[in-house]
Amino acid sequence: MQGDLFNVVLISALIVALIIVFFVISFIKEHRKILKWQQARIAAEINTLENERKRIADDLHDELGPLLSAIKLQINHLEPTDETESAVLEKSSAQIDSAIQRFREISYNLLPNTLVRKGFINATEEYITKLKPLHPLNISFESCFFNLLPEREINLYRILQEIIHNTFKHSRAATLTISIQKNNKALLVKTKDDGVGFNYLEKTQIAKGLGLLSIHSRVELLGGHLLINTQPGAGTLIEIEIPL
């Protein structure tokens, strides 16, 4: 009798265990499907964003640029009849020059030609050089040579752009160091500033943390891992590992 009861209990336990295993496996599979769906959605959103940036940059370069240049040429051919007209023409010409310079900056920020023609390292160095006259932050950039597909280079470039922008805007840092190295399997990106730091959990839960969420999304799209080490008064250390 006791043996039969033991067998019933044992079989019941096995059935319960099998049911639990079944639900655990089903949960894991469903979780993986959700993750893949989320990654596909993020990839689609980012690709759409980059395509739209490229379209706007091309429109600025191919249409607005020549139009402004033509207007400036026409103004320069006008012959003023008095000092007032001369002053108006001179001011108008200067304003067009400012507009041309501004749209070139916007076009560059949307899609740097250097990134397309010469790759990530040259584009990043050029971007940092352009920023130096605009901000006292001292940026140090060192990188090994590596090969990535163009769409992966763009995402890495945008990640560094966002980190530099956040450092400019929020950190009150004097220095920012950026280092990119690689091992046999991964690209290792490390940035560190000596600024005021921030509350990481708080920033990611409010609208002001959209820049951080963008970094997270692009790192996830690259199949990488992100570590942000910061606290108020202690600067910010960011480490990113991207599989090669």
Quick recap:
Helices cover 66% and strands 15% of the residues.
Shape: elongated
Task: Report the C-alpha radius of gyration, rounded.
Answer: 27 Å
Number of domains: 2
User: How far is it from the N-terminal to the C-terminal residue, by CA?
Assistant: 63 Å
Class per helix and strand makeup: alpha+beta
Under CATH, the homologous superfamily of the largest domain reads: Histidine kinase-like ATPase, C-terminal domain
Question: Which keywords apply here?
Answer:
single chain; 244 residues; alpha+beta; Heat Shock Protein 90; 2 domains; five-stranded mixed sheet; 7 helices
Task: Please give the structural blueprint.
Blueprint: H1 2-76, H2 83-110, H3 113-118, H4 120-131, E1 138-143, H5 150-171, E2 175-182, E3 186-193, H6 200-204, H7 210-221, E4 225-230, E5 236-243
Parallel strand pairs: 1-2
Antiparallel strand pairs: 2-3, 3-5, 4-5
Helix pairs in contact: 1-2, 1-7, 5-7
